[in-house]
Predict the structure.
Amino acid sequence: MVRASLKGREIWVYLPKESDVTRWETLSKASGLSISSWVFEMVSLALEERPAPTTPSASEEITRLRKQVLEQEREIEQLNKFQASSQLLQSASEYLSQVKPIEEMVKAILQKGGIHSGEQLVNELGIDIIAGHLDRKTLYKILQQLIDDGLVKEIEGLGFKWTTKN
């Protein structure tokens, strides 16, 4: 029976095997301690060497990981937008590199003077619209930009005329 002064301080420990009980009893006798004192000493030493882990609870860890996943998804979305913008810029750059020489040729033809129809420009440029080197829409975009810049004037029904000398 437990002494009255020890009541409330006792715990029961069930070990996995009887051989564990025998081993612990042997170790406690070899150390000169009672089994209770020896178990207390061993547990106390183990706790001093290795403090109890302070890991977050499972729900805190799940919350943290979800936030991390959301942040990474946002980063991926930003990277995808950047990649799409980069591809668009590259396409625009390629288009401009093809159009710029044609624009320079259109300027040179118009600067010679006179009024040139769209068909005359195509013929003078020596570019095959049918083969896909230049479509009419692109030529008229070039002409519209030159008009907007005040360099070319459209003479209704006749064609286009250079308005300034450079």
